[in-house]
Amino acid sequence: MSILVNKDSKVLVQGITGSEGQFHAKQMLAYGTNILAGVTPGKGGQNTLNDRIPVFDSVEEAVGETGVDTSIIFVPPPFAAEAVIEASFSGISVVVCITEGVPIHDMIKVKQIVNQNGTRLVGPNCPGIITVDECKLGIMPGFICKKGNIGVISKSGTLTYEAIDQCVNVGLGQTTAIGIGGDPIIGTTMQDCLELFEADPETEGVVIIGEIGGQMEIVAARWANENMSKPITGFIAGQTAPPGRRMGHAGAIVSGSDDTAEAKIRILKECGINVAESVADIGTVLKTSME
Amino acid sequence: MKIHEYQGKEIFRKHGITTPPGIPVFSVEEALNAYRTLDTKTVVVKAQIHAGGRGKGGGVKLAHSREEVEILANEMLGMTLVTHQTGPAGKEVQRLLIESGADISQEFYAAITLDRSREMDVFMVSIEGGVEIEKVASETPEKIVKVWIDPLLGIKNYQARKLAFGLSLTDEAFKEAVSIFLNMYVCYQATDATLIEINPLILTQDGHILALDSKFNFDRNALFRQKEIAEMRDISEEDPTEIEAGNYQLNYIKLDGDVGCMVNGAGLAMATMDIIKIAGGEPANFLDVGGTASAKTVKNGFRIILSDKNVRAVLINIFGGIVRCDRVANGVVQAVKELELAVPIVVRLEGTNSKEAQQILSESGVSIIPAIGMQDAAEKVVKAALG
After folding, report:
1. Which residue from B151, B263, B378 is facing A108, i.e. has the nearest CB?
2. Which of residues 244-273 of B touch A (CB under 8 A)?
3. Potential cystine with A131: which of A2, A78, A252, B32 (Cβ 3.0-4.6 Å)?
4. What residues of A are in contact with residue B261 (Cβ under 8 Å)?
């Protein structure tokens, strides 16, 4: 077991003929991801990646011809929102949007639509999902992961890799790791992921990596305090971030007193989460939590 | 991205949001011409900088004659305005807005912004205008009326009416307010704004509604489709080093410490700053070099970090996933050689080909302090900065 994706996921790559799409589709195939189709409007009928993968003009066509149910999006920011909407209305159930720089006004609408259609969107501006040794639906380096029973949820890319690396170094592998993205509006929230990990029999503990900005970590922690039986280890980045400055991620900005790292760390602790104060301690704190 | 008040008001007028007549000026002469053109006895001379709190800082003053306009324009142009939002260094005033005075009967607050928790835009008005809205929100939240706007439907008339009723408006003023609120939302959508704030929105003594101020924030990610807005950018309002970093596709924010850092990924960059602090140092910057971390980005990164003369040591922290560490190591060595760097450099490379990378660094002949893990890296760089 795992969450969201596994070896049976039938994967579509939207934007497969672009340079990002090509590069990462190749990496995902090498990891063992079950990619069945690609979409690039206007390039339908071709085959790509050494003739292995058929390209379609639309998601609807790809679904009809190959039965894909999961999609990963590598299209440029002006077209990314529509790519998600197309996937959602074409019956794709899990969509990962890697694209960085999707306008907020587009995402507000997209969020409403995926909610209405019951589509599970991850991202945008995220590294994607990996279910270890089964399916890599993202751009993370697969080799850093090891099969195990920890779920990982993170707003950030390389910080997720750091956390995974530390887990492995203390002897704890992962079920699924998800980068949910650091934009102000994202598809799947931290709480959504906690709910999925709580329900997954294989996952025995969870690591959450948050940062300044927004209330997502707090909402998730409060939910977990009431509903979660599995131990959670947390880390919040941005203790030294000055207020009012956007720290890289569009959503990483301190705008009030309750979205600072200090406030989040305090509330996470109140909710029974074991918080690593330093990024170097994520692995050791996790190990203690799991003992 | 932010713009000046006078630019915001130009956008307002285009969208049917009424403002007092006003003219932006860059010199005393232009200020006097503007006074003549406006043809009203009383005008407001308003310093145009990208920060709030201008009134308290002496950047908003009334003038009742040509002479007073001349005196004020002379005084304000070139002055350094310090407000609670500019920081102690303040900002130089280069532009003024000369605006017809308005007879204020009541001051309100009106704003649209993103509510991240509800994942919708929220429209807020308050009868407590002209003051800090944060104070109203914490002390008398019942004085703020809010409506949330369904993104697929847009604002509806009943919502705009609810806002206008919330301000206890009647008759013509009520109708004007409803129309302004509907137009504000159209404007918010059309410009990809993430904030429109009017504080104060006023009821004049003769019963009309006017926007006396304008504040916009725009979504940087949407500038590709907002050419007119992008052209309103005033780079003299921004930090020159941050602009240069932007030209190199680097994400840099200057801070007050002396330990520079160069990291791939925003989250890891923040975590690196934090661990420098925990190790007893003060981070000099936030710098995310993005996913590639090539020789060129590393070199540009060094240039940006070291343009800050406070920097006494630099930590490079790269978690190589798709980007291979041996390539990053080569880039670091090349950059250190070419730039003849004098400050100590601590390098921590983890991920793909990290062993090869260690070898490249140790055999390079340049003086680089290798580190293993983030704790080790932070301790070494803080020690190096202390000299």
Report:
1. B151
2. 251, 253, 255, 263-273
3. A2
4. none
For residue B292, the model assigns a pLDDT of 64
Buried b (16+ CB within 10 A) or exposed e, B34-57: bbeebeeeebbbbbbbbbbebeeb
Question: Binning pLDDT at 50, 70 and 90, where does residue A45 land?
Answer: very high
* Per-residue pLDDT, B73: 97
State the Cα–Cα distance between residues B377 and B78, nearest whole angstrom. 45
Q: Which residues of A touch B225 (CB under 8 A)?
A: 78, 103
In our burial notation (b when 16+ CB lie closer than 10 A, e otherwise), range A212-240 reads: bbbbbbbebbbbbeeebebbbbbbbbbbb
Q: How many CA atoms lie within 13 A of B123 on its CB side?
A: 28
Give the contacts of B320 (CB within 8 A, at least 6 positions apart): A141, B264, B293, B328, B349, B350, B351, B352, B353, B354, B357
User: In this complex, which of A103, A182, A219 lies closest to B266 when CB atoms are compared?
Assistant: A182
**B114 in A contact zone (CB under 8 Å):** yes
Closest approach of B341 to chain A, Cα-based (Å):
26
**Which residues in chain B (30-49) have CB-CB distances under 8 A to chain A?**
none
Yes or no: say if B314 and B348 are a contact pair by the CB < 8 Å rule: no
Pair A79, A23: CB distance under 8 Å: no
Burial string for A175-206 (b: 16+ CB within 10 Å, else e) reads bbbbbbbbbbbbbbbbbbbbbbbbebeebbbb
pLDDT at B322 over 80: no
Residues B321, A144: C-beta atoms closer than 8 Å: yes
**A9 to chain B nearest CA, in Å?**
23
B36: tokens are 């003549």
CA dist., res. B21 & res. B34, Å (int): 10
What are A110-131's pLDDT values in tens digits? 999 999 999 999 999 999 999 9
What is the DSSP-derived secondary structure letter of residue B50? S
CA angle A265, A271, A273 (to 5 degrees): 65
> Token digits for A124?
């945008």
Residue with tokens 């003219």: B23
HSE-up of A266 (CA within 13 Å, CB side)? 8
Give B250-293 pLDDT, tens digit per residue: 999 999 999 999 999 999 999 999 999 999 999 999 999 886 66
Three-state DSSP class for residue A279: helix
| Residue position matching structure tokens 């661990």 | B275
Identify all chain A residues contacting B252, using CB atoms and an 8 Å cutoff: none
CA torsion angle for B295, B299, B301, B305 (degrees, to 10)?
Answer: 150
Is pTM beyond 0.95 here? no
Contact B120 A108 (CB under 8 A): yes
Chain B partners of A251 at a C-beta cutoff of 8 Å?
116
CA of A78, closest CA in chain B: separation in Å?
8
- pLDDT tens sequence across A60-80: 999 999 999 999 999 999 999
B150: contact with A, CB 8 A cutoff: yes
